[in-house]
Amino acid sequence: MIKFQGVSKIYPANSLNPSPTNALTEMSFEIKEKEFVLIAGRSGAGKTTIIKMLTGEEKPTKGRVFFSFEDDQKIIKNVEVNKLKRQDLPELRRHIGVVFQDYKLLPKKTVFENVAYALEVAGAEDEQIKHEVPKVLKIVGLEGRSNHFPSELSGGEKQRVAIARALIHRPKLIIADEPTGNLDPYHTWDIIKLLLKINELGETVILATHDQDIVNNLEKRVISLEDGKLLKDDQKGKYII
After folding, report:
1. Strand stretches in 134-193, DSSP E
2. What's the mean pLDDT in 43-55?
3. Per-residue pLDDT reduced to its tens digit, 149-192
């Protein structure tokens, strides 16, 4: 589904960093459909840069990034993400749901409205919104909180709303970028269990984290990064950084 082929990313020197920064160096790996993969490493190891490559937000200095999938409606084969034009990126991103550490919810909109907004900006009809949003809220366990505002939710509930919003377009890939960074241990595992459930429903899930406890207890494939380099790729990995 995903292929990184000799990908390097060098950020040029600027006023804050007088020397060029090697964010990724000769990164190569593949991820298959329906896999659950952790990308592990300390802050600055290159996790977020990989995510930005997948969504087309950043382009590699060297190498190639491919994205492929097949479903009942559409077949996308070996799209070279780094060669897509800006106007083609929204189509790619409709097949990728991204969950962030800081939720990115709209404070003056309810849970229902926050999830619905992702459909509204894509031009969905009211009937589709009324039909789809409750289904996704049920998947994440928030069907009873649809009329609440973000200020009335716990951190774990806010992250569930963010996951619901990422799911609303029925993407083929869910990317969670440090989704438990602001949560206590109880809510952390609540969110991890939800991501596992989403994976069991057929979604490919990439979880970027520096949380040693999560990596060591999940017994999933772990791609370990250090200083922008691929340190290890194990099918049932442990935190080794």
Report:
1. 173-177
2. 93
3. 999 999 999 999 999 999 998 898 999 999 998 888 889 999 99
The DSSP annotation for 71-100 comes to: -SS-EEEEEEGGG--GGGHHHHHTTEEEE-
Question: Which tokens is 7 given?
Answer: 């990908």
6 contacts 64 by C-beta, under 8 angstroms: yes
Q: What is the CB neighbour count within 10 angstroms for residue 43?
A: 8
Nearest Cα to Cα of residue 175 among 185, 190, 162: 162
- With tokens 């190569």, the residue in question is 28
Q: Are strands 36-40 and 204-209 parallel, antiparallel or unpaired?
A: parallel
Q: Which amino acid is at 35?
A: E
The full set of domains in the chain, from first to last, is 32-60+86-234 (3.40.50.300)
Please tell me the pTM assigned to this model: 0.91
What pLDDT does 122 receive? 83
Do residues 33 and 47 lie in contact, with contact meaning Cβ atoms separated by under 8 Å? no
What is the pLDDT confidence band of residue 117, given thresholds at 50, 70 and 90?
very high
Closest CA to 65 of 50, 47, 85: 50
First to last CA, the chain: 27
